Amino acid sequence: MVVNNNEEKFRYMLDNMLEGIQMYDFNWRYIYVNDALVKQSPYSRGEMLGYTLMEKYPGIEQTDLFGIMKRCMDQRATEHFETEFVFPDGTKAYFELSINPIPEGISILSIDRTERKLAKELVVSNERRFRALIENSTDMITLSTLDGKVLYGSPSITKVFGYSLEEIQRTPAFNFIHPGDIQNFVENRNYILQTPGKSYQGQLRLLHKNGKWIWCDATLTNMLHEPGINALVSNFRDISERKEAEKQREFDKNNLNALINSTTDLMWSVDLDTKLITFNQPFCEIIRLVSGKEPAKGDDVFSVILSPERASHFKTLYARAFAGEAFTEIEYFEAPMEFWSEVSYYPIRKGDEVIGTACHSRDITERKKAEENLKQSEKRLKEAQEIAHLGSWTLDFATNIALWSEEACRIYGLSPKESKQTYSSWLSFIHPDDLNAVITATNESQKTFSDTVLNHRIILRDGTVKHIYTKSRFEFDLNGNPTGLYGIAHDVTEEKIAEDNLKQSEAYLTEAQQLAKLGSWNYDIKTDKLTWSKELFNIFGTDKETFIETHGSFVHLIDVEDREFALQTSKHTQKTGDPFTIEYHITTSKGEKRILREHGYGERDSNGKVYRLFGTAQDITEQVLSQKKIEESEKRYRQIVETSQEGIWQIDENNKTVFVNKRFCEIFGYSFNEMIDKTVFDLLDEEEKIIIKEKIKRRKRGISENFELAYISKSGKRIWANVSASPIMGDKGKDLGGLAMFTDITERKNSEIEKEKMTADLIQRNQDLEQFAYIISHNLRAPVANILGATNVLNDQGLSEEEKDVFRRGLNESVTGLDNIIRDLNHILEVKRGINEVKENVRFSLLVENIKNSIKNLIEDSHIELAYDFSEIDELWSLKNYLYSIFYNLISNSIKYRQQQVPCHIKIKSHKIKNKIELTFTDNGMGIDLEKRGGQVFSLYQRFHTNIESKGMGLFMVKTQVEMLGGKISIKSDVNKGTEFKIEFEI
User: Fold this and answer.
1) Cβ–Cβ < 8 Å for 279, 265
2) CA torsion, ordered 56, 60, 65, 67, to nearest 10 deg
């Protein structure tokens, strides 16, 4: 037993060793492998035990490793060595092996040294690579002590820096650093000295042996804590060429930006996803104008607002460019302004691959317009001459023939076919009173070959007189000899008439200014010259002889309290050109107080500088006094409105509140600000909204009316109001809203409702009395008749005792029946008397749970499913006993009249509809044939299923109690499908 325990412990130790253990018998068959060996090999334990080494590793007997293993097996020797092993899949591993003979054969202990082997090889490789990098790198690497002494320098120092290592080592390090970089270098060096392993990276300038400064990327690392290094490791890389390249790139970039932004042409580029790569300032401005936002690199070029058609068009063009095509298209745009653009697309290539497109857009609007104008020049010239009543002509001295344009012919009353005229024929049209002056002027111009300008009259063949403006110019050949004349004939008849009318209009304007008490003025800032119209002198109570027309003189005419404000306003407009409107007071020379309203404007010259002010000044004294009277009247009106005992509500054409008075706010509980913008519908229930919609239609037709309507106050209280509503109409019957006067009639209305309710109660009580009388007369008649009959018979002396017993039993039954009826009637009376009990908040869910507990055995024995949903409303202010009786009778009724072969389902649900609570009781029971018995459902002693014992009082009591609570009950039912009772209570 001890041996077995030792063997088990020994095996447990082998199984849990970290080194692999494998044992072979003399036939090279696996007899044991531990878990570590399984992890080292590609086989599981089951795939090795019982198999030979040669079966798992074919060809192993040809290896040196097998030779060592065989020698150990044959000679019972021990070996310890490291070897490389190749697995069947070709992977290699390195093991440290210990081979020992055992009685069964040999055992091999294997330690996987693959990672160590690879790490060692990597170290050697890395060291070799690192040395090669150091020795051949262009970077300058140094190791220095804390005090700056250089311990080591890479060979690149001499190549890049020009100094030998000895020169570096005997020269202080700071001597090589540019004075402008020393402070930053020292600060960062001190910073990394505080933390072992900390590095600093930056750029600085070092002095080359040739006396030039070279730019270097510098990395300084604190390795003083490392025993094998114990130094500050510095790495310097010459980036002088890169710096120069950066400068050149910056220059090129700035130069390119200057070039592309110095033009008004649009330049931009996009990638294959139509995302912006770059763009110039004009492109940015046009995008901002179109879309209202700044473009940014990476934006989709189609984020600019385009119509679907334009977007589709441009996507097609970009697709052509992305396909490698360079082309130019003419584009026409209507918005935000009409313009033409010549857009060129140039594919951007990376090797043979297109990676985007560069675009160039030149505004050719002027050119296109010029081309268009050129095409239509003759048509426009013709139309222009016709519109301006201006004709043209040319006279050839060689032929003495003048060619007149169509408009020139029309001016002179000729047809276009008569376009060929002579100098003599032209003179024939001249008004006799102007003929000599015209001939004299033309003769004078022929002497000097100067231009001729004439204003004269002509007489047409029909006798019409016209005023003509004529201007002519000589044409010369290359030798300076006159060859002809060309010129224009302008019909200025209308202008002449207009000139005469203008003189009349100026007279009218002067009169109008006088009537409106409005004068005009003009101020030349440079000369300080102020020009007033005649009426302005009248307004200020001065004249041209007295008033010096300067800005300073005008300012001193303004009353002192307004003078500084007027002066500063004028100066502001002189500086900015902004228009102004001010009011100020003046006192005339006669001591009259006046109020003036002045409008002023600034006008700029071609350089954008304000050079003059102009405007008007009006005497508004009477208007101001009138406005004050209106304001005082309005104040009195508002006081009347606010103290009115009626609520006043004004709405606009959209039925929104624009005004309510104090009394209205008191009635409905809202503040003035809370009511503004509320609509008429915000204070109404759904039923009243339907009514008011019809009222609004009538208002829009201009109809005024009085009506009574219930509104909802801010607190939720129902307010009854007598409303007197009137429309507010604008020009041509336009609806501008309405005005309503409100009188609170809630108290009166509630009294009326209470009276109606009392009347309804009286009617109901009368009906109850009639029914009660009917019950007494009908239901009591039979038992009373039976009692009387039995009593009379019992008085008969001829009856036998047996017959008397029969009649006594009948008499007893009749008396019992009479007693039951009297008890029922008494129960009904007790129920009606119970209406005076105290009301309370009754929860439906608790009510049903109490009923369920009271009939728990019946529900469980009969498998009744009773479900309820009072999620909408679960409470009612009422008589708890009445509600309990109603619920109990309806639930027990559903159970009593269930279908025996069908599981009984009873569902109760509540709904809140406006100001009412609706309760529904639904079951799947026997149902009632309402077509035959519908009128008897809620009557006393009515039974609809004779096979079930019942007195026929339940539904009568339910209806009685529902109506006593002010509610209503109705029924829906189908035979063998179920019944639904619906009860409504007002909240």
Assistant:
1) no
2) 120
Q: Please give the order of strands across the beta sheet that includes 401-404.
A: 420-421, 401-404, 390-396, 482-491, 465-476, 452-459
Secondary structure, 3-state, 548-608: CCCHHHHHCCECHHHHHHHHHHHHHHHHHCCCEEEEEEEECCCCCEEEEEEEEEEEECCCC
Separation between Cα atoms, residue 437 and residue 442, nearest integer Å: 9
Instruction: Kindly write down the DSSP assignment for every residue of 808-851, as one continuous string.
Output: HHHHHHHHHHHHHHHHHHHHHHHHHHGGGSPPEEEEHHHHHHHH
- pTM of the predicted model, to two decimals? 0.31
Nearest partner of 705 among 717, 692, 718, judged by Cα: 692
Answer whether 874's CB lies under 8 Å from 910's CB: yes
**Bond before 336 cis per omega within 30 degrees:** yes
- The per-residue b/e assignment along 201-240, b for 16 or more CB within 10 angstroms, e otherwise, is eeebbbbbeeeebbbbbbbbbbbbeeeeeebbbbbbbbbb
Burial string for 741-776 (b: 16+ CB within 10 Å, else e) reads bbbbbbeebeeeeeeeeeeeeeeeeeebeeebeebe
Highest mean pLDDT among 21-25, 246-250, 538-542, 618-622: 21-25
Distance, CA of 29 to CA of 43 (rounded, Å): 15
Instruction: Tokens 């017993």: give the residue.
Output: 805
- Residue 464: count other Cβ atoms within 10 Å of its Cβ: 10
- 680 DSSP 8-state letter: G
Q: Which pLDDT score, from 0 to 100, does residue 310 have?
A: 81
pLDDT tens per residue across span 890-919:
998 898 889 888 899 999 999 988 788 999
Taking the C-alpha atoms of residue 617 and residue 600, their distance in angstroms, rounded to an integer, is 9
Q: Which helix (H) or strand (E) holds 235?
A: strand 231-238
Coil, helix or strand for 897? coil
The confidence band for 515, taking pLDDT boundaries of 50, 70 and 90, is low
Q: Which two structure tokens, joined as six digits, stand for 659?
A: 């005004």
pLDDT tens digits, one per residue of 543-591: 888 888 888 888 888 998 999 989 899 899 999 989 999 999 999 888 8
* CA 336 – CA 286 distance, rounded (Å): 10
Which residues are CB-neighbours of 778 under 8 A, at least 6 positions away? none
Q: Degrees (nearest 5) of the Cα angle 930, 934, 937?
A: 115
Q: Which residues of 861-885 are buried (b: 16+ CB within 10 A; e: fewer)?
A: eeebebebebeebbbbebbbebbbb
Q: What gap in Å lies between CA 73 and CA 105, rounded to an integer?
A: 6
Positive or negative, the Cα torsion across 275, 280, 285, 286? negative
Which pLDDT band, with edges at 50, 70 and 90, does 6 fall under? low
Q: Which of 330, 310, 314 is nearest to 322 (CA)?
A: 314
Angle subtended at Cα 749 by Cα 748 and Cα 752, rounded to the nearest 5 degrees: 90
3/374: higher pLDDT? 374
Burial bucket for residue 184 (CB in 10 Å: 0-12, 13-18, 19+): middle
For the stretch 241-299, pLDDT in tens is 888 888 888 777 777 666 677 678 889 899 999 999 988 888 888 888 777 788 888 88
Using CA atoms, how far apart are residues 237 and 222, in angstroms rounded to an integer?
18
CB of 385 within 8 A of CB of 391? yes
Name the band, by pLDDT with cuts 50, 70 and 90, for residue 597: very high
Find the helix or strand (DSSP H, E) in which 868 lies. Answer: strand 865-869
Q: Please give the structure tokens belonging to residue 511.
A: 């009169």
Tokens of 144: 């220095």
Coil, helix or strand at residue 856:
helix
pLDDT, one tens digit per residue, over 115-152 is 888 777 776 666 666 565 566 666 788 888 887 788 88
Q: Which of 933, 927, 937, 941 is nearest to 973 (CA)?
A: 927
